[in-house]
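EI: anyone free to look at a 289-residue chain?
SC: sure, send it
EI:
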Amino acid sequence: MDLDYYNKSKRRRTAIEEFDISLCPEGEDFVISLINDFDFLPFPIEKEVSKFQRLTINRNLPDNNNTTINEIKFLKNRLPESINGYSRANLKNQSVFYATSLLPTALYENTPEVGDFITISDWELRERDTCLIVYPIFDYFKSKDFQLLTSFNKAMENLPKELNTELDKDKIIEDNCLIASAFSKFVEKGKEINYTLSAHISSRIFNEFYNGMVEAIIYPSVKDPIGTSNFAIKPEVVNEKYRLAKVRECEVISKDQYGICLQELKRSYKFDEFIYWSKGEFLESRIEF
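SC: here you go
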């Protein structure tokens, strides 16, 4: 490993962990310029993501007074025009579909309150053995996602000849650890400007690398202590490759330092496919509970 490259990366990781942009908002443009100048080695892999879950807090939707969600479109990603700030993997006015592999992780991430109605949607591939082009983000030396680590190592063994040297492999791993430090940065509520780093990196991954062919980003949950993987997926990929399999409406009946207790109120497996495409949106039927 190039020692100078490693030391430079280490200094960058320390800066990411310590820098609070909310204390100096005028420095946002400077941070963005640094990200755009960061020349890291992109390394997407092919991976089958057969299913995932998404949690929606009903009262967070427009015109929803903690009532049942009956339309599929409200279980999907937010519309770009409604997004006026950064999130972990999206810019302002940029929409991605956020999901996770485990319900407890979704509860940690969304933090519903007692009395809230929440809707848990399960999504699965329309066709089996379909792979996504995924950009994996994780700390190679600390990750607990052994399945993702195995997929990453397997892909590393099949690097193109022009990259297939130990030096470049080390750089790919080091760059991934550096990016992971931005994605694992804890962001306080009200200080969402600190998502600037990961949001702009995500935009580059989705739109610049491999001619925009990356379909999803996998990254570790910050709020879940076991670091389960989250997904940020392009909305058009969800529409094309996934179908809604199950919907459950639950009420949060208790919450303490040990976890959140839910009571299931309704469940449905009845959904129609998209009807037709009109004015840039899918028109869909209602969920039958």
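EI: The longest helix spans residues 166-183.
SC: 👍
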